[in-house]
UniProtKB/TrEMBL annotation:
SUPFAM superfamilies: Arginase/deacetylase
UniProt name for this protein: Acetoin utilization protein AcuC
Pfam family, one: Hist_deacetyl
Record organism: Paenisporosarcina antarctica
Source lineage: Bacteria, Bacillati, Bacillota, Bacilli, Bacillales
Similarity section: Belongs to the histone deacetylase family.
Histone deacetylase domain segment(s): 31-326
Pathway assigned to this chain's UniProt record: Ketone degradation; acetoin degradation
Keywords (A to Z) from UniProt: Acetoin catabolism
GO biological process: acetoin catabolic process; epigenetic regulation of gene expression
GO terms for MF: histone deacetylase activity
InterPro entries assigned: AcuC, HDACs, His_deacetylse_dom, His_deacetylse_dom_sf, Ureohydrolase_dom_sf
Length: 397
């Protein structure tokens, strides 16, 4: 991407942080959080000739000192002991481990630390100008708290990465989260920090875990005004989602002026996702990375780190959505038409559902929404409330 920056020393345009060891983050055969989606996405990109061995960087494991940037020492110790079978679920439930959502599994500390290390690997590539952009689809565990696991997330790779960026690179970070669930763990980690801006666009907590992310959550103390939440109604479709995303992301980036952008790219706002109630289509995942890419170049000399996140239809949705993200990151022309026949033939026999054979969704994916106008108007009101304090009229009052 030297054409964007004039920096001839850049060695890579973008790096893809990945190894099959990331699949070690596995709760059970039936748990909805299934990292097989990493294999499906990587294979789809390879069959598109959009990913080569030269693009792939092996993730490292985060050290204890790095984990402690965002996590309590006692909590890390509990995870380590549970990881080795030294604690029971009844002893760890108060730490969010051993629950139905986040059960104990062997070597869970090492597997979790590897996902964090993957995001730190991505950070170093971008912040040391070894690459303009970096993608770690194994990351995006945005529900992890300082001293507690939550919502399938043990360690919070984005929170650790942002603390790491602050400590090592002294940079202002804009984190934007388009997962259907509120990015609570990252938000609360930086709620009082004026040098980290968090944006979360998510399905309203009235119906969906974790129940937070109200528009009135704006940060506190010195961090007041750097936390932005846009809770959208159930059944929200592409047009309204993208209107909020495009408007909010650009206005907030212009206001905050970040040094680096981190995007959390959960793919569970899609109509087919089994855990949420939004009505997005593949159009969302075509458009969301375009603006992130554009704003990274406008404000951050291209510095853009992307992580994965939610996404529970691992066959029909996630591989297509995350492939579009990587292709946008590499300035590739976004594909139309059919998926590679070789990929469909290879994976259809394993899939419990009929795969969608095209990059975009079929026209008749779902029945028309009767409350569309009402939902669009309610979402627009949320947008205006969320941005009220950074718009010019507010400063004049």
């Amino acid at each position: 991407m030297a054409k964007h920056t004039g920096n001839d020393k850049l060695k890579k345009h973008a790096v893809y942080v990945y190894s099959e060891e990331q699949l070690g983050y596995k709760f059970s055969e039936t748990h909805p959080f299934n990292q097989k989606r990493l294999i499906l996405t990587t294979d789809l990109l390879r069959k598109m000739n959009a990913l080569s061995d030269q693009d792939i960087v092996i993730p490292r494991i985060a050290t204890d000192d790095e984990l402690l940037l965002a996590h309590d020492p006692r909590y890390v110790d509990i995870v380590k002991k549970a990881s080795k079978g030294l604690m029971t679920s009844s002893q760890t439930e108060s730490f969010g481990i051993g629950t139905e959502d986040t059960p104990i599994f062997p070597n869970m500390h090492e597997a979790s630390a590897r996902l964090v290390g993957g995001t730190l690997t991505a950070v170093d590539y971008v912040m040391e100008n070894k690459a303009l952009h970096a993608l770690n689809l194994g990351g995006g565990l945005h529900h992890g708290f300082h001293g507690r696991a939550s919502g399938f997330c043990i360690y919070n790779d984005s929170s650790v990465a942002i603390k790491y960026i602050q400590q090592k690179y002294k940079a202002r970070v804009l984190y934007i989260d388009t997962d259907a669930h509120h990015g609570d763990g990252v938000q609360w980690s930086f709620y009082e920090d004026p040098d980290v801006c968090t944006i979360s666009i998510h399905e309203t907590g009235r119906y969906l875990f974790p129940g937070t992310g109200n528009v009135t959550e704006r940060g506190s103390g010195l961090g007041y005004g750097t936390s932005f939440n846009l809770p959208i109604d159930a059944f929200t479709e592409d047009e309204s989602f993208l209107d909020l995303y495009m408007t909010a992301f650009r206005e907030i980036a212009t206001h905050f002026k970040p040094d680096v952008i981190i995007t959390q790219n959960g793919a569970d706002a899609h109509y087919l996702d089994p855990l949420t109630h939004l009505y997005g289509t593949m159009k969302l995942y075509q458009e969301i990375p375009k603006l992130a890419h554009q704003l990274a170049h406008e404000f951050c000399d291209g510095k853009w780190i992307a992580v994965g996140g939610g996404g529970y239809d691992i066959w029909r949705v996630v591989p297509r959505a995350w492939s579009l993200l990587w292709m946008e990151m590499n300035d590739m022309e976004l594909p139309q038409g059919k998926l590679p026949k070789e990929w469909l033939d290879q994976w259809q026999k394993d899939s419990p559902v009929q795969l969608i054979p095209t990059w975009m969704d079929p026209e008749n994916l779902y029945e028309p929404i009767p409350r569309k106008e009402e939902i669009t108007e309610k979402n627009k009101q949320v947008l205006d409330k969320a941005l009220y304090h950074i718009r010019p009229h507010y400063e004049k009052e």
